[in-house]
Amino acid sequence: MLVGIVSDTHDDLAAVEAAIDLFESAGVDAVVHCGDFVAPFSVTPFDAGFDFHAVRGNNDGEWAVESTVNAFGTYHGEAGTLSFDGVDVAVTHGTSEVVVDALVDCGDYDYVLHGHTHAHEVEERDGTVRVNPGGLPIPVAGADDDFRVATLDTTESGVAAVTHHRLDR
């Protein structure tokens, strides 16, 4: 199974469309958005040919984001747990590093997905892989200079299962 991972799209419809185009061309089965859509109009394009899951980001100021996601996908609130082909995944926006570290260090999940920093990362700690797909470029030290998303191939394991993709928008 192939899972698309995206975060921090911040109402940039060109970025949203670029992510969806990549996910559709790659044939993903599901997409997980790690928060910071901002407004409902940037949620609706994800109503596409894959299962969709999302969590709330710190900039998702319109509560209608929840009902918009739930119209075609699953909204998990502040954090959620998922299973894809027996691969256990936790997802949160990542506003709290303490929460992200606790999810990674508890050992209950194969993967912990988060965003917030706008910097793509992947690291393995004691059998759990933490994945940040990146996000839109922002003028903050450490943030990516390009928009990035990631894919997770559940037929692989560990860090090797994660691929980051740089997208033009």
Characterization of the model:
- With 169 residues, the protein is α/β, with parallel strands linked by helices.
- It is 18% helix and 31% strand.
- It has three helices and eleven strands; from the N terminus they run βαββαβββαβββββ.
- It has helices at 13-26, 64-70, 97-105; strands at residues 2-6, 30-33, 51-54, 74-75, 79-84, 87-92, 111-113, 121-125, 128-132, 147-153, 162-167.
- Strands 4-3-2-1-10-11 form a six-stranded mixed beta sheet. The protein has a five-stranded mixed beta sheet with strand order 5-6-7-9-8, covered by helices on one side.
- Helix 1 (13-26) links the parallel strand 1 and strand 2.
- The longest helix is centred in the first third of the chain and has 14 residues, at 13-26.
- It is globular.
- 43% of the residues are buried.
- The model has no long low-confidence stretch (mean pLDDT 97).
Strand content range: 25-35%
Main β-sheet, spatial strand arrangement: 4-3-2-1-10-11
Give the overall silhouette: globular
| Number of helical stretches of at least 4 residues | 3
Number of strands: 11
Round the mean pLDDT to the nearest integer and report it. Answer: 97
